[in-house]
Amino acid sequence: MENFGIGLVGAGGMGRSLVLEANQIEGVEIIFVSDLNENRAKSLAEEVNASYTLDYHRLLSDDRIHAVFVASPPFLHATISIDAMNSGKHVFCEKPMATTLIDCDAMIKTAEQRQVSLGIGLVCRFHATHSKVRDVVVSGQMGKPISIHVHRIGGPWQGGSYHTDWRMQREKCGGFLMEVNAHELDFMRWTCGEVKKVYAAGGIYIQHEADYADLVVASLNFESGAIGLLHSGQVSAIGGYGGRVDCEKGSVFFPQIWDGDSKIQIKRFDGSSEDFPISSIEVESPVRAEIRAFIDAVVNGTPPPVTGADGRAATEIALAAYESIETGDPVNLPM
After folding, report:
1. Cα separation of 14 and 10, whole Å?
2. Cα(190)–Cα(186) distance, integer angstroms
3. Cβ-contact 333, 145 below 8 angstroms
């Protein structure tokens, strides 16, 4: 097709990132930007030479738009996505896909019925560290994975858009496990396979204005036999983001994920080792890469690289962790 038209719903931080990156892809045209905040919608629309509207239904009737990008607060993802798909539009929905499995299933069912693509914005699959670690593990060169540990910790959300009313309610944002750790849960599943059981502990320690745990330590049992550990928290003044994968023949250690000066370290039981500086791993801008891959899939009629099933799985694991915290018992999947 000559031009691939995009309409955006939700012009906040992530919506802005999506359209600015999409605007850098040849053959892509941003047609409409929609947001309930007129100043925000107008400002972003002018930046990408698009029209704007306060009512997203207006862009659904525009035949120039092939796909709708949904970057609203999570509790609105399902409604907007389903409306878009019922209008014949393909949908790229930011994570978390939705905060309930009922909504996830409704989105997947609508995509199937309308024969449109549904892609989910789990962008860590396109980041240098995540993709390199995963490639090493699934290549088999280290043998089967035995355990995977990922930590992503920091301080409580404070001020500005990070402290809006909907972000303090798990029903609306999905809590930290969905709105942030959807990435880590997807990465762990992408690397080690399907999860069959979740056992978690956690609680509210610092961010008392929120109704969800600000510290979670979750154990994941994979169908492959591997065991995972996710340390998620907003209670650390120091913070950090990294992890490791231990396999039959050795280990893959990534102490920092974003730091370009850090290295991915590989060490085998036979004594051999390799280091990969993160800065040496060449990847396209991750958000641009995920958008490009989604558009290519739509144009070629192939499944998107991150499907509705992938988005649903991240939500299900998070919900299982929350249930385990509440009951004190492990939760078997599927729920």
Report:
1. 8
2. 6
3. no
Pairing, β 263-268 against β 195-203: unpaired
Q: Cβ of 2: how many Cβ atoms within 10 Å?
A: 5
The whole-chain average pLDDT of the chain stands at 96
State pLDDT tens for residues 223-267. 999 999 999 999 999 999 999 999 999 999 999 998 778 999 999
- Residue 234 near residue 254 (C-beta atoms within 8 A): no
Going by C-alpha positions, the residue among 118, 120, 78 that lies closest to residue 98 is: 78
Closest CA to 322 of 231, 216, 220, 194: 216
Q: Does residue 282 contact residue 172 with C-beta atoms inside 8 Å?
A: no
Instruction: Give the model confidence (pLDDT) of 100-133 as tens digits.
Output: 999 999 999 999 999 999 999 999 999 999 999 9
**pLDDT score for 157:** 81
Closest-CA residue to 321 (of 231, 190, 210): 231
- Rounded to 5°, the CA angle 223-224-228 comes to 80
- DSSP state letters, 11-42: -SHHHHHHHHHHTTSTTEEEEEEE-SSHHHHH
Residue with token string 């969905």: 178
Amino acid (one-letter) located at 295: I
Homologous superfamily in CATH for domain 4-123+286-305: NAD(P)-binding Rossmann-like Domain (3.40.50.720)
What is the topology classification, in CATH, of domain 127-283+315-332? Dihydrodipicolinate Reductase; domain 2 (3.30.360)
- For the record, the structure tokens of 48 come out as 């990408």
Asked if residue 87 lies in contact with residue 60, where contact means CB atoms within 8 angstroms, the answer is yes
